[in-house]
Amino acid sequence: MPADFNWAIGGEAGDGIDSTGKIFAQALSRAGRHVFTSKDFASRIRGGYTAYKVRTAVDPVQSVVDRLDVLIALTPRTIEENLDELHEGSVIIYDGERTTMEDVEIPEGMIGLEVPLKRLAEEAGGAIMRNVVALGAACEVADFPIENLDSALEKRFGSKGQQLVDNNKEAARKGQDYVDEEYDHEFDYDLETTDEDYVLLNGDEAIGMGAIAAGCKFYAGYPITPATDVMEYLTGRIENFGGHVVQAEDELSAINLALGAARAGARSMTATSGPGIDLMTETFGLVATSETPLVICDVMRSGPSTGMPTKQEQGDLNMLLYGGHGEVPRFVLAPTTISECFWKTVEAFNLAEKYQTPVYLTADLSLAVTEQTFSPEEFDMDEVEIDRGKVVDDDTIEEWQNEKGQFQPHAITDDGVSPRAFPGTGEGAHMTTGLEHDELGRRTEDTDLRIEQVDKRNRKVETAKEQEDWSPREFGDADSDNLVVSWGSNEGAMVEAIALLEEEDVDVRFLSIPYMFPRFDLTEAFEDAEEVVVVECNATGQFADVIEHDTLTRVKRVNKYNGVRFKADELAEDIKQTLEA
Amino acid sequence: MSSEIRFTDFKSDKQPTWCPGCGDFGTMNGMMKALANTGNDPDNTFVVAGIGCSGKIGTYMHSYALHGVHGRALPVGAGVKLANPDLEVMVAGGDGDGYSIGAGHFVHAVRRNVDMTYVVMDNRIYGLTKGQASPTSREDFETSTTPEGPQQPPVNPMALALASGATFIAQSFSTDAQRHAEIVQKAIEHDGFGFVNVFSPCVTFNDVDTYDYFRDSLVDLAEEDHDPTDYDAAKDAILDADKEFQGVVWQNEESVPYGEKHGVTEDMSQVDEGAPEGAMDLVREFY
């Protein structure tokens, strides 16, 4: 039996693919198995191919592979779309009584399980449960105890009444019994369960959870794929912690609402995707110049323009590093795993307030919409630390006033960080502006003051470089001559690729970079390496360019930009070939 | 402290660079008087402005203030107010800032009905860029960029506001100091989004919509038996193309501001030293 099991349900958008997939993923997670999910979806509400894939193992899984063991095919196209991943012995569950499926031919070597999904669902109480019948059938094929499915069904339908839960449980059993009775085939799977308790969540949810944990009270955003889940997560939850979500009229408004809340002293955030960052860039400059702490989350999708909204890409790096007119300090954080989406969000709020500057937090679509299991301790809230930086109050404001008793929000300091007075603080009334300003925040065109303020703002970056830890996450063989560098969601596939490469006697040292700016100095790592390969999901190698600039050394590149994330086995092959080239 | 506050406490020590005779002096003075009269002080007041001559106001007033980007002062003001409802929030803009680049935000700020005051210094021209047509310029108003006039009807800000569900609409004239301050004060006291369009003449570039023009043509609604709570009367006054007026034209007494409607009534500036109590429940949801 293989160490991991790969399952998928596919059909048309509107077929309930997403919720069915999620129920199965939760059942596996509740059975103490690790789960990693991925989604193929199109940018439309109904129709169009869509699939939800689940990879599961007893050991942690953090990527997808090019293999599918059991496929629930609700449409003929589902089989076509997955032909590459289906293999000899793969099981395809389908409803042969469904008009569109009656002439389906199961590819040679694969096992077609014809299960009357709709008819059995109707017997259990309603045709709508046909996907759950299929889940029951899958349980039988995988030898997975169906009781685990029950608890996932309770979670999903519990709020809608016991009758519905019972009907669904029965539907699942009808699917299971049908396979058991009609097919005497011995399947190759035996999904074992453990006593572990895991949580299952995606990157957008982890970002939202991180924001609440960090004390974020205000969120303004405009819906956009694939960032909307952050907003949907916060809505209805942040209120329990004294916060509020505003759905703005556009991204320009969203960032300005968030800016206003931040000026009022709230920990404040907005999230969007690339096209939204384009619109926000005007105000981004104001946020930086007015030295307002703000977390701006960019969940990258495939660009440019509207590009491929539901597909993976890491194409926004240049915009995040350099976007906007003029020169303003910024931090750019890029979580590399779903749990890091949580922790980097917490860190983003601390950096924003400590250095009074906007922080871009960028996740890619693959991190945002895929789910992974973690032990709950991974999100230990006791580990969350809040640092608000230099906030003054009624008692301490005096030391930051000039001889006329005026508060100086842009006071020149050695570390580049000025004091902050939240509105309402006595004797603290002050203005700030996107115009160049003096220490009081008032407009100036004085050439000396200009230099002082620019230097002061830029000094924050130098201070942060010294005071914070910008280390990468390191994997593989520390002594290897082969160095692989990547960012974002590629880490999961790369970590698994390392193991696959080992099997072929290729050793690599892998640095996964979570900080795009400021950056860890790679010069030393480069000196130790003979070959350097930079892995990223874009066509031109934006991060590779940046690294070459930093280190004055040429690197090799592995780029993928067809809209699909790296798969572990594919990446291992690409790395091997690139090293050999 | 508030009882001792005078309107001059809202003045900064910076000398305005507005042209001598600019309507914006009077507009600003009226805002400061209204703030003082309503018991506010500089430390609980937040003034937001966009770009243009009107955008300079934060520099000349003494309060917490942000001078933002063109057309986007309204969402900033809403963010400030929602994050700290204890603050008095006043947003200032010009006719270009508010009805052109910021028109989208205007419509939605009106709909959102956050409890703040929006004062538009309407001089029917772009002053700071030296005299181009604005969205409230007359159809035949000749400028450097519209030699034959814009040849499009001007935006009717009040009609736009009314159609967007405004709960308070007023108009005033910057040089009628007493009346202007009184109207802004009513906007501040209104529960919800108080919108005041102020005729604030540009003495340098607009030789049509002058002080004399407004003095001669302005009708005061208070002397007209106008009932601002009568929606139809408000609609008629707003759509009357032959009438320039000052006064409160429409006030919805049933207005419930956004914050109250959504339960956003607490100061959000304080956070715990670690994750908030109950945060671990957020993790358990994912079991």
General description of the model:
The complex is a heterodimer of chains A (581) and B (287). Chain A has 581 residues and is α/β, with parallel strands linked by helices. Chain A has a 7-stranded mixed β-sheet, with helices on both faces. In chain A, strand 19 (482-487), helix 15 (490-503) and strand 20 form a beta-alpha-beta unit. The mean pLDDT of chain A is 96. Chain B has 11 helices and 8 strands. Chain B has helices spanning 23-37, 57-60, 73-83, 95-101, 103-112, 157-163, 177-189, 211-217, 231-239, 258-261, 279-284; strands spanning 45-49, 64-67, 88-94, 117-122, 168-173, 194-199, 218-220, 244-251. In chain B, helix 1 (23-37) crosses helix 7 (177-189) and helix 4 (95-101) packs across helix 5 (103-112). Chain B is globular and about 70 Å long. The N and C termini of chain B lie far apart (53 Å). The mean pLDDT of chain B is 96. At the A-B interface, strand 7, helix 7, strand 8, helix 9 and helix 10 of A face strand 1, strand 2, helix 3, helix 5 and helix 11 of B.
Over the alpha carbons, how many angstroms does the gyration radius of chain A reach?
Answer: 26 Å
Give the distance, in angstroms, between the N- and C-terminal Cα atoms of chain B: 53 Å
Give me the number of helical elements of chain B. 11
Total helices of chain A: the number is 18
Largest sheet composition of chain B? 8 strands, mixed
Please give the number of β-strands of chain A: 23
Task: Return Rg of chain B in Å.
Answer: 20 Å
Sum up the overall morphology of chain B in one term: globular
H/E topology pattern of chain B? HEHEHEHHEHEHEHEHEHH
Percentage beta strand of chain B: 15-25%
User: What's the β-strand tally of chain B?
Assistant: 8
**Mean pLDDT of chain B, nearest integer?**
96
Domain Thiamine pyrophosphate enzyme TPP-binding (chain B): 51-198
Cofactor (chain B): Mg(2+); thiamine diphosphate; [4Fe-4S] cluster
InterPro entries (chain B): 2-oxoacid:Fd_oxidoreductase, OFOB, PFO_beta_C, THDP-binding, TPP_enzyme_TPP-bd
Domain Pyruvate ferredoxin oxidoreductase beta subunit C-terminal (chain B): 202-265
